Amino acid sequence: MMRFLSVLAVASAVLCLAVSMAISPKAPYPLTVFELQAENPPSKDINMKENVMNLHQGKWDINQATAEQLMQVEGIGEKRAQKILQYLYRKGGISDMEQLLEIDGIGEELLSRIKEQFTAG
Predict the structure, then answer these.
(1) b/e code 51-65 from CB counts within 10 Å (16+ = b)
(2) Residue 61: φ, ψ to 5°
(3) What would the pLDDT profile of 14-42 be if each residue is shown by its tens digit?
């Protein structure tokens, strides 16, 4: 008898869930990136218009870069990527790509390759 009641309770719960999902209102359109960001605002003050424009230019904001993204640049391996990320962290980000020249091991040639893929937001 106890087993029958347990099965009946589970079946009722599944039926209620299915009915509630079938009659629940659906969004008329999928959420956009901007709506999702409004729900989960970024921790830093980010200029969305500028970032969207940079994305269209095919460049990433260096201040939001990951080690994996940095290592896509010829001449940047794991150690150099970590140096760059540590520098960016200590500085709180940069506003001019030329600031990367302060990092030991980054010269004009490497900076030029970095600028092809990144911009300072």
Answers:
(1) beebeeeebbbbbeb
(2) -75, 120
(3) 666 555 655 545 444 444 444 444 555 54
Q: Are 58 and 115 in contact (CB under 8 A)?
A: no
32 backbone dihedrals φ, ψ, rounded to 5°: -90, 170
Between 20-34, 59-73, 104-118, the lowest mean confidence (pLDDT) is in: 20-34
Q: How far apart are CA 84 and CA 28, in angstroms?
A: 44
- Sign of the torsion angle spanned by Cα atoms 56, 50, 98, 75: negative
pLDDT over 70, % of the chain: 55
Domains of the chain: 47-121 (1.10.150)
How many Å apart are CA 15 and CA 9, to the nearest integer? 10
CB 85 within 8 A of CB 60: no
Determine whether 47 is exposed, middle or buried from the number of CB atoms within 10 Å of its CB (0-12, 13-18, 19+): exposed
- Amino acid identity of residue 90, one-letter, is R
